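Notebook entry, structure prediction.
Reason for the run: the old model in the group folder had no record of what sequence produced it. Starting over properly, with the input documented here first.
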Amino acid sequence: MKYIVTLNGKNYEVMVDRGEASVLSVSDAPKTAPAPVAAPVQAPAPAPAAAPRASAAPSASGEKIFAPMPGVIVDVKVSAGQAVKKGQVLLVFEAMKMENDIVSPRDAVVAQIAVDKGASINTGDLLAVIS
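New structure, fully documented this time:
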């Protein structure tokens, strides 16, 4: 089969036979205005799936503690209003078949626990607020 391929302003007549290609002739392409190129149409972004959130938006002010990785809350060790010491375990979550402790970064009072036992969490989800 013969094809004419235009590349960089030159027409190449190409013969293709059983996977083999050979150039038969090369000539200057006729001077024509370039064909208008339609702007790419982007598909509308899919609506984000309504993922089950661990809890509602933060209602307390203070230092927010976020999930470092995805997982499932295994245990909630403290409750709102409880005084905690630096290093005290606030929550336990399971990620990659390992239990991980979320500890208080300082002496504080728990202002809010934003997740419940059994909740699935994603990286960056709010877990607790301390003040």
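Summary: Residues 49-56 have pLDDT under 50 and may be disordered.
The old model has been moved to the deprecated folder.
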